[in-house]
Structures are given as structure tokens and as C-alpha cells.
Amino acid sequence: MKGFKHVRFVKHEDGMEGVLKSPRSSKGGKVNNTTRQRFQEEARRMQQLTRDQVTGIVPVLDADPNDPPQWFVMPKAVKLRAVLSPGGRPADLREVVEAIHQVAGTLAVLADRDISHRDIKPDNLLHYQGRPAVADFGIAAWPERPELTAATQKMGPLYFFAPEMRFPEPGAPGYPADVWSLAKSLFVLAKDLKFPPEGTHYIQGGEYSLWAQGGEAAMDLAPVMETATAYEPRDRLTMAAFRDELAAWLKLHPGPVAPAHPAIRRGFRALEAATVDVRRHEEELRRLLPDQMRRLAKAQHGESDRWLPSALAERHPEGVRLIDLHGYPDDPDYDMGVDGMALSSTMPDAAGRRIVLGGFLMGTTTTLAAEIQQAGKVLASWDEDVNVLLPSALVALRRITDEVAAAYAKLP
């Protein structure tokens, strides 16, 4: 018998090797009551799942006949990562998806039994008897079992657990969290990472891209990953739906999935992802402008409604345009080369002067721009490059608005 503390490698008299698990002790060498209760519940429940012949779990070969049990034995298995990336070679995306699809099938069956694992991560995904198998149900939620974790205690693997598991509500089901953690596991196995990036895997986010692993096929997978890691549990795929979406992807891509060079990301789906990101920035710019337009109208006319809200609904509103180049000399009409634009204007004053405020996008960089115009000429102009999704963008927009209002007040 060899190993460490609560997990030891053992060999039966018939030569069969296994892994013996017992309650984990604390630093002082003692096992606290919560840990002991969790282990005993795990031992009993895993024996029941083994008797029920549930596939896709690491079964129980033997167990302490006493009640409560103090140990149980599982077969030796290898890490799923080692099978998908033998010798450290890059994993094949399709093989990873196929493996995670099988794990999702197992977890969907367990969810139907009111069981959530709550500790899904690559280290707990093994390979046994020719297929992926889920291991370590030490903090699983079982039906008709008192919750052994305080509401203020984080639940699950640090880099893989879902947002709601940071401070789980008593009695809240763990099935949505299992979906989140399994999607994160798919990502790190496909990219050969130790930890996943944080947060929802937005389609347009470069840090969440599997393009290099699967090219256009990876773009088909991106919406599944985004929905599987939705922030709100109610917006997330169920485990059964996650399993079915992965099955659909496998059906769409029955053959080997070709990796793609990250520097030549191309195709309509890749373009669509980039377009979604730009659209998100453009919409945020449109959201920020009305408050500042009302301030400028108040400064110019004494009435906050003397501006053109309808102009914000159009990319090139009739009669409203920027005249200065604002650092963009290639297209003075702001037409062909600009990825997005939002502009509005105050009503002209008695002298024909008006204030144009807005911005244009090159990729996800927004150039905020403002001009005081009169008779087709610029009396004064301002511009600043920002990331419109960050708080600093609103600070910059307010500062430009203040400067424009001050400059207008000084006009004769």
C-alpha cells in the first residue's frame, strides 16, 4: 500500500490494483465532523450509483462493510487530459468535445437523480475502460441530504466554479454550476491551459477564442460556450441541453477539425464575431450621448430639449456631420473606413451656430468628437480616443461637454 494520507494505491490479492480513499484529515491529523459526514455520504452514494450501473463515473470496487463506512476502493484510472494530450501534444478539438459530450451525458443523468457534482474540473475528469469518467464526489449535493456547507463558504474549484457558487444560497441547485465548470474544463483541455479565463465566454472575446484549435468549426462552438457560461444561472444551458448542443456540433463536424493560424482568422463567422464586438461599443456610445446632448442644449439655449435625438438612430444622419478630420485623414466623409458612428446636434442658435457631439469607431477604439459649427465651418473642435465600455470614457465625454459648453459661452 502506498500513496498519501486519505488516498492510497492498493493491490488486491488477485493482483488487481486500486485506489483506497478515506476521510481527509486536517493539518492537525484529525478529521472534522463535516469532512467525515461528507465522506460517509460519498461512500454510500457512490456504492449505490455503482449498483445501479450508472456509466461515466469511477465505480466502487470495494468498501468498508461497517456503517458508517471508513473507506472505499476505486479502480485506478488515468487523467482525461493525459489521454487527450498524450506526450504533451496539442489536443484535437473534436476529441475534446466528444469527451466533454460524454461527461455532460453522465452529469445530465445525475441531474435527473437530483445529484450535482459541484467540483467539476479537469483533475476530476478521468479515463476509465475506454471512456471519460467523473471522479471525486466529495462535495456533491445529494437528494435528501442536509447541506454541509455554510452559505458563506465558497463551493467548488476556485478557477472553475460559477459566480453563484462563490456564496451559494442554501438549497440552491448546483446543476447550472456544473454546466459552467464543464464548459470551462472543455476550454482548458482544448487549449492545454492550467486555468481558464474568468467570466462568460463571449463570442467576440479574443481570450475566449478556440479559433486556433478549430478554425471555422470553433466558431460554431462559440455560441454554445457563451450560453454555457452565462452569468445568470437561469440564462445558462441545462446539462442536458449542453450535452445536446455538443452532440449537434459533433454531427456538424463528423471528420477531423483542422486547426487554424490565429493570425489569419477569417470567414463570415469570424467577421460576425468582430462585428458583434463593434456593435456593442457603438450601442454603448449611443447610450452615453443623450445626457451630454441635453447638457449642451441647456448651455446653448437654456432648454435641455433643443437637440436632435432622432439623429442618434442613424449612422449618417441627414444634416449632421463632422467637418474636422479628428486624426482620421483617410476618409474625410467618415464613410467607407469607419466601423461605426453615432452623432447628434443641438438646434442652431440665432447666429446659425450648433454643437455636434458624438464619435466614430475604428475596431473597438472610439474617437469622441465635438465641434462648434457655423455655416459649414468649425469654430472649435475636440477629440479623444477611448474604450467606450470603460468608466474613463464617460469621464472623458463629460470633460469634453464641459469644455464645449465653456467655449460656447465665450463666443460673441
Automatic annotation (TrEMBL):
It comes from the Bacteria. Its EC number is 2.7.11.1. Residues 15-38 are annotated as: Disordered. One of its GO terms (molecular function) is kinase activity. Keywords: ATP-binding, Kinase, Nucleotide-binding, Serine/threonine-protein kinase, Transferase. Pfam families: Pkinase. Residues 1-250 form the Protein kinase domain. This is non-specific serine/threonine protein kinase. It comes from Streptomyces pratens.
